[in-house]
Amino acid sequence: MKDLRRYLALKYIQYLVLSSSNAVSTLLGLLGSAYTMILLQSAKVSSKSTAVLISSLAQADILVFLSLVSDVVLGSFGAGVSPGASALARILLTANAHVSCVLLSCVAFEAYLITFLPVESRSLRTVRNARLVSRVIWMLVATECALFLMDDHLRGSNSLGLLFQLFSMAAALLRSLSYILGILLRIINVYIYYKIFFSMSPR
């Protein structure tokens, strides 16, 4: 459907084109995700693997909403936003960005399979596999953010023990890998849609 394609285009711009989020893109993303979740409940939208991935992508924006709520609720009891509220909001936004980027790449990869290997990949492009992929992505990102949150907690407690050093090294390594993976995903997505675009262009 055209609305879903527009939503994906918005999300690609928000997470894989813009260098950082801003108020306008965040608001548009939240509105687009709310509309998409309603749209996916319609009987007109067939239950396919792509729809499952898009649904999970839209649900990821719930984390953005929760980060805004945490800033308001936890920060309303003092002068400005408390360090705990700021750390929680940052972790939620990180989880949202990472889940969204990987899911967008999964949608792009599926589009590549549909375009170039429609028959060979049919057994892979199932609703069950899409749900499994979505769950794995959420679990991995949740583990990543739990490590970041623990690292922030240990830093805040001024701990200098071996546990703090291990968490600090693991968190630093994971942040570096996340940055590198983000760049690779951008390159891969551009390549995939470049191939798809020119394969569909009239020769």
From TrEMBL:
GO terms for molecular function: G protein-coupled receptor activity. The chain crosses the membrane at residues 12-40, 97-120, 132-150, 162-194. Keywords: G-protein coupled receptor, Glycoprotein, Membrane, Receptor, Transducer, Transmembrane, Transmembrane helix. Residues 32-203 form the G-protein coupled receptors family 1 profile domain. SUPFAM superfamilies: Family A G protein-coupled receptor-like. GO terms for biological process: phospholipase C-activating G protein-coupled receptor signaling pathway; positive regulation of Rho protein signal transduction. It is a multi-pass membrane protein. GO terms for cellular component: plasma membrane. Its main location: membrane. This is LPAR6 protein. It comes from Alaudala cheleensis. The gene is Lpar6_1.
